[in-house]
Amino acid sequence: METKPPEEMLATGQPTIVYFSSVSENTHKFVQKTGVANVRIPLKTAEEPPIMHAPYVLCVPSYGRPGGAGSIPPQAVKFLNQPQNREHLVGVIGAGNTNFGDLYCIAAEKVATKCGVPLLFKFELMGTQEDVQKVQEGLEEFWIQNSLYPASA
């Protein structure tokens, strides 16, 4: 079961992860372990993707296909094809499998390059506790460094 952040959490500008997870649930399990506000992209491409109204980081797994073709899940492509979603994207986290060699986290690399945002973190499969801690601390630091928290009233 995914956790969708309350609207008031998004309104405060807290770090948010938007993610796609396949039926393996590896990416979902990792995102849940971070405790960061999150929104899940639907599993079925026929479902409408969420529309983001605040800065977020996209967490995307890579699919191991020859030469990296088709490495970005079509659900993530559909999500990013929404102009408002691309506008609010501030960074990318890659999920992958080191068995893919040079194609490890290739989807995140492609999204970061195409959208002109930084690739912040990479983790394998469900990630380690160290990966979780790096993301938790790193997102907080990233939000502060990039002035993504709204100004106090």
From TrEMBL:
**Gene3D superfamilies per record:** 3.40.50.360
Function comment: Probably involved in ribonucleotide reductase function.
Q: Which family does it belong to?
A: Belongs to the NrdI family.
Q: What is this protein called?
A: Protein NrdI
Could you tell me which species this protein originates from? Rothia endophytica
